[in-house]
Design brief:
Layout lengths: L2 E6 L4 H11 L4 E7 L8 H4 L11 E2 L11 E4 L5 H6 L8 E4 L9 H8 L13 E2 L6 H5 L3 E3 L3 H15 L7 E8 L14 H4 L4 E2 L8 H9 L6 E8 L6 E8 L4 H11 L6 E3 L17 E7 L5 E8 L3 H15 L10
Parallel strand pairs: 1-2, 1-4, 2-3, 4-5, 5-7, 6-7, 8-10, 12-13
Antiparallel strand pairs: 8-11, 9-10, 11-14, 13-14
Helix pairs in contact: 1-10, 6-8
Length: about 325
């Protein structure tokens, strides 16, 4: 029997990518899609790549009957789900939230780094952090998932196995991450215009970025002594993230490589490259894969890890689909490969 799914915020980059994967999923029936600026339009008028969902009209959720809904995806901007919507939904309907509203365990950090008040923080304890390959067992048992951010996904997946390995004594980390411009969302801003970003490259959020507390939270759950510096940058490409991570070298790089390889053995979306092949963004674009490899710097003092993901797929919609597949015991790769 098909799963009845609703989507909030379908017209953004993440929402449209999510819709693409749901439309071709064999176990899914999309029966509700909600938006403000596109209300009343058929999905097929906005997205010509759809098949079974093309005739569905975008509507106002306040007039929708959720009695047969099994799962809600929220692709709304930060603050919208927790402030305007979640209190009006049936608490028995499962939710996968792709915003930052329920990622952080600290209300004060949410308010500080997102610059938003939080009016539904009592619901935070219901949400599981949905880093698929790390928290799979928790995700299976949970009805409410907070999908990780794109930068944290590219950083935590390669780092967590190494931090867990006590003999490596991972402590001081430098993280240099670069993202395509779609990571900034669809809202028009001067600095995101083609004429501004084309041929350009710059750092941002150096002293305060909303993904810093998320990365810090998940690292500190494993080892409170670990500290890191995180600097994000914008690349003049549409999608993709490369994170370059620097660690103090305690063992030969082969040891780090072996730990990652063993930790993610048989994981379909985690590609640990062999030899000296450097992961590239173009190799993961439009896939739910993360590509990772391990290197040593010229002075043999640092371990360098390079990881690449598509920020709209493994960093957002693809991981959300993966989490849904885990939650409802579907084949984990369904619609993603």
């Amino acid at each position: 029997m098909a799963l009845n799914v609703c989507i909030f915020g379908v017209s953004g980059y993440t929402g449209s990518k999510l819709l693409y994967y749901l439309d071709k999923h064999k176990q899914i029936n999309i029966h509700g899609v909600f938006g403000n600026s596109t209300s009343g339009k058929r999905l097929g008028d906005l997205f010509e790549n759809l098949n079974k969902s093309s005739k569905i009209k975008i509507s106002d959720y306040k007039n929708f009957n959720f009695s047969k809904t099994d799962l809600i995806f929220s692709c709304l901007p930060n603050g919208k789900l927790q402030n305007d919507i979640i209190k009006n939904l049936d608490p028995n309907i499962s939710i996968i939230d792709l915003s930052g509203d329920f990622r952080l365990n600290s209300k004060s950090e949410y308010q500080k780094f997102y610059n938003l008040s939080h009016s539904s923080y009592s619901l935070k304890k219901k949400f599981c952090y949905g880093l698929s390959e790390v928290n799979r067992n928790k995700i299976k048992k949970n009805k409410f998932i907070s999908n990780p951010g794109c930068y944290p996904t590219s950083i935590l997946l390669p780092l967590i196995p190494l931090i867990k390995e006590k003999k490596l004594k991972v402590q001081d980390i430098i993280i240099d991450s670069k993202s395509g411009i779609s990571g900034a969302g669809k809202q028009p801003k001067i600095e995101n215009l083609f004429t501004e970003i084309s041929g350009n490259f710059f750092s941002y959020g150096i002293e305060s970025h909303k993904h810093f507390p998320e990365i810090n939270q998940e690292i500190k759950l494993i080892n409170k002594k670990v500290s890191f510096t995180f600097v994000p940058h914008v690349l003049p490409v549409i999608s993709g993230i490369q994170s370059t991570i620097y660690l103090e070298k305690k063992f030969n790089e082969k040891e780090y490589y072996k730990i990652l390889k063993n930790f993610y053995m048989n994981e379909p979306f985690i590609k640990i490259y062999s030899g000296k092949k450097v992961p590239q963004i173009k190799e993961v674009q439009n896939t739910n894969n993360i590509a990772i490899n391990v290197f040593t710097d010229q002075l043999k003092k640092k371990i360098i890890i390079v990881s690449c993901i598509d920020n709209l797929v493994k960093g957002a919609a693809g991981q959300a689909i993966q989490n849904m597949n885990i939650m409802f015991d579907f084949k984990e790769t369904e619609s993603l490969i």
